[in-house]
TrEMBL record:
Record's protein name: DUF2254 domain-containing protein
Transmembrane segment boundaries: 20-38, 65-88, 108-127, 147-168
Organism of origin: Rhodococcus oxybenzonivorans
Coiled-coil regions, chain positions: none
Protein keywords: Membrane, Transmembrane, Transmembrane helix
Chain spans, region Disordered: 191-217
Compositional bias (Basic and acidic residues): 191-204
Domain of life: Bacteria
InterPro entries xref list: DUF2254_membrane
């Protein structure tokens, strides 16, 4: 399994609620079987000091304790699931459905559910081993196992209190925005090597022969590309592959996602070689029902912008949340300005370019952040002011001429939008001042060059 597929599999496991609870239930089942066996072997040989710390009740008392633990833990588990689902529903309706993966990936929630379910299963498993004296069989109370059930119950009570406190913190918009920002920065650090080529311009040369189209084998979002597998396929086939779709784009089965042509002026590919190449390309691409943050550079900004425009909708009408989201966008754009964005090329061992991959350019990401909030927040001078402040922040952090031209373009569009609104003199003056700050930040870079 390639590195890309391993990351995709790890992300799929990480963002689902069931893997950790399922593993905990399995471990609890095994422990519930083995600990009573251990009890039967060493119970009579325990020193008095250790024995006094263990459960000392009768078989009926043991059954009562284990029964109460099992019944109470399944009730607590149901409550925990209910609170989790309410939180997911609130995040989806109040902020954006694209935040659901962030909640589902919360390790604290997964481990809390795992502890509750494991305690329930363990208590039931141990309960079956408790025997009263029936004449033929002597009474058996697995004191170590019952005591361990009591310890798990105490941990579950503590976990419930901590879970409620954690849930209150997680539902805050600041916490959610922080998680998205952190995940996006991690993706950028993994995949955006500043030494790789690509400056946002399309430098594709004309192919020497008519290109062969590469079609998508399945419909869905492109969630991952195994770059090394794609490079290996192109090198073995002696071709150059040009991908027209980036991670995060939606693919439709049977439609072109790129093309290939022989390297140099070699002979055209025969149909059998093309079929083998298409199969290798298909295996190197991962598709899914939804976008993920595994390799998607722009997905974090998409989530943050969705929070902003949802907050600006008439049904929500929460411009303060929109401003918080735009502040996170500003921070993330400043972080991304230090990486090489745009198309990237992959070379073989001989230094021959074999693969060209699409990635969003920094101006495209800036437009993603500015366009919709500018449109939906056009009548709010505070939102427009935050967008101008965002342009000022990113202007201070970048010296790339492509970036500065994009900032200048967005500044002009914001000023035109503001000029069309019915703002009073004080509001308009504040916006004009912020616009001058953006220009000053841009001019400062040019002065130092």
């Amino acid at each position: 399994m390639g590195g890309s597929r391993r990351r995709l599999f790890a992300d799929a496991v990480h963002t689902r609620l069931w893997p950790i609870p399922a593993a905990a239930v399995t471990a609890a089942l095994i422990a519930g079987i083995l600990l009573p066996e251990l009890d039967a072997v060493i119970d009579d040989t325990l020193p008095p000091t250790a024995a006094n710390l263990l459960f000392g009740g009768s078989a009926d008392a043991g059954r009562e304790v284990l029964g109460v633990i099992a019944s109470s833990l399944i009730t607590v588990t149901a409550l925990t699931f209910s609170l989790t689902l309410v939180t997911l529903q609130l995040a989806s309706s109040q902020y954006t459905p694209r935040l659901l993966r962030t909640f589902a990936a919360d390790r604290f929630v997964q481990r809390t559910l795992a502890l509750f379910l494991a305690t329930f299963v363990y208590a039931l498993t141990v309960l079956r081993t408790v025997r009263s004296d029936s004449g033929d069989d002597p009474a058996f109370v697995p004191r170590i196992a019952v005591t361990f059930a009591f310890v798990l119950t105490m941990l579950s009570v503590l976990a419930l209190v901590l879970f409620l406190a954690h849930l209150v913190r997680q539902i805050r918009i600041e916490t959610m925005l922080h998680h998205v920002h952190t995940d996006s920065v991690d993706v950028a650090r993994r995949f955006l090597d500043p030494r790789r080529t690509g400056d946002g311009r399309d430098t594709r040369p004309p192919p020497p022969t008519p290109p062969h189209p590469l079609e998508s084998a399945a419909s869905g979002f492109l969630v991952s590309i195994d770059e090394q597998a794609l490079l290996r396929a192109a090198t073995e086939a002696g071709v150059v592959i040009w991908m027209d779709r980036a991670v995060g784009d939606f693919l439709v089965a049977g439609t072109p996602i790129g093309d290939c042509h022989p390297a140099g002026r070699g002979d055209p590919l025969d149909p059998q070689s093309m079929d083998a190449l298409r199969e290798q390309v298909t295996r190197s691409l991962g598709t899914g029902l939804e976008r993920t943050a595994t390799q998607d550079i722009g997905y974090g900004l998409r989530q943050l912008v969705d929070v902003a425009i949802r907050a600006l909708s008439p049904g929500i009408n929460d411009p303060t949340t929109a401003i918080h989201a735009l502040s996170s966008c500003s921070s993330l754009l400043c972080e991304l300005s230090g990486y090489q964005l745009g198309p990237v090329t992959l070379d073989d061992d001989a230094g021959i370019t074999r693969v060209r991959l699409q990635r969003p350019t920094w101006p495209e990401l800036l437009d993603l952040v500015c366009s919709q909030p500018r449109r939906y927040g056009a009548q709010d001078p505070v939102v427009l002011g935050r967008l101008l402040s965002l342009l000022r922040d990113v202007a201070w952090r970048t010296e790339d001429p492509h970036h500065t031209r994009a900032i200048t373009d967005q500044l002009g569009r914001l000023e035109r939008t503001a000029s069309e609104q019915n703002f009073d003199a004080a509001e308009r003056g504040e916006l004009d001042t912020l616009a001058e700050h953006v220009r000053a930040a841009l001019e400062q870079h040019w002065t130092h060059k």
